[in-house]
Model the fold of this input.
Amino acid sequence: MTAATATTAETFRPALHYAAQNTWLNDPNGLIFHGGVYHLYYQNNPLGNVWGNMSWGHATSTDLLTWTEHPVAIACDENEDIFSGSIIYDRENTSGFGNDSVAPLVAIYTSAFKPGSAHEGTQAQSLAYSLDGGYTWTKHIGNPVLTRGSAEFRDPKVIRYDGAAGSYWVMVAVEAKDFQAVLYKSENLKDWELLSTFGPANATGGVWECPDLFQLPVDGDPENLKWVLTVNLNPGGPNNGSAGQYFIGDFDGTTFTSTSTVTEGLQDPARLGDYQWLDWGRDYYAAVSFSDAPDNHRLMIAWMNNWEYANQIPTTPWRSPMSLAREITLKSSNGKLRLVQQPAGDWTAMAGPESFRLTDTILHEGVQVLPGGAGTVQRIDITVTPGSAEEFGLILRGHGAKGTRVGIRPVEGALFVDRRESGQTDFHESFPSIDTAPIRPTDGAYDLTIYVDRCSVEVFAQGGQVTMTELIFPAETSTDLSVYAVGGTATVNSLQVTQFA
Ligand code: FRU
Done:
């Protein structure tokens, strides 16, 4: 490796996010908390840093902030690629894969059958099991266990349903090109019976992939539970390319119903702003949640990339980071239910001493570099009250006025990330972009918490009601932090920068 490529690799390698040591990854798979350890499996090319040879890579963490890579968990072979799926802890050994002393972990994954294999041309659901806590896996001899003869049937997420209708395993997967979530039930993970389908609904501009189904209390009230169905879609997100939408509703053990669905005018891009999105940024895809997270918390991780340019992002020898793990809750606000997201994990352990603070400062037209706020890996907490400015915000990972802009245009009710001058952008024509999300002030003010890493920006706005996740590739020397206003004034009530590296 030349000195130049070595520098590039370390320039973008994230400090706060997982990336494989020197290979490609995409979707998180099989997320489970088991034996005191968070397991993150993922779509991995063990032989390269572009998509291919799909297998399940593996990493573990005890704090959701630092990760250890392990050998490939489930490898592709001459018959199948191992596409996305989930893992459950089969406590009662319903599958029979366990023995007298050990209950198995069971992975339910999509076999993407290769030309020449017995199931050529189809995608079907298969099982593998682990008796050593998730480190080594054996494929089930009776695979596949569920086939529909379809070429687009994938991404099974299995949960335990315990409710009025009984107690059994439920699988939600997709018929990707039909924009349908398909639900199945099983007693033993091997025999599956169709329950129902959901969709097409809301955003259908691409294929539906990687669904999830879980229950959450509304405003923390255990007596008021709602079901959430998440569906990733690619392309067709609110700012182009890959994104994840969600539906809030009810699941009676057979059918998922939602009041927030729109089934007419599906393809109308003008409607995308009306739907509910897990994240409005360009780089938050294939989000799924952990099984068995402690204390019933709902924790999610997404792949931090976008299929539009995923194979071209300028990192080497690895390619693609995961998002931060996020805790998801369900809140009612202005009569509407919505998911609220916060980074999971104990960040106090990661933080250096608080490095910079600004209070009650009026921004005037122009850019003001904040020398004390400079850095590469940091959290920025800012509360701003609008004044006469048509636009105001921050410039991160900057070099003077050039950098990634995270701003607000109050009259338009828009939060945006502008990465046109964020650093390297020319590896794909659709990368340099201004991406927007709807935002409304709370008590007259906007508040943003922004996690900046060596190749990413994750914005949690209004307490996590709106999030935007975007990749950026700034020069190592672009460390300036600035505030700016356009066309008038705004007041920074408070700004705090915490350095992490
Ligand atoms: C989503 C996806 C899944 C599939 C996997 C293949 O990014 O296309 O639908 O299982 O990636 O790597």
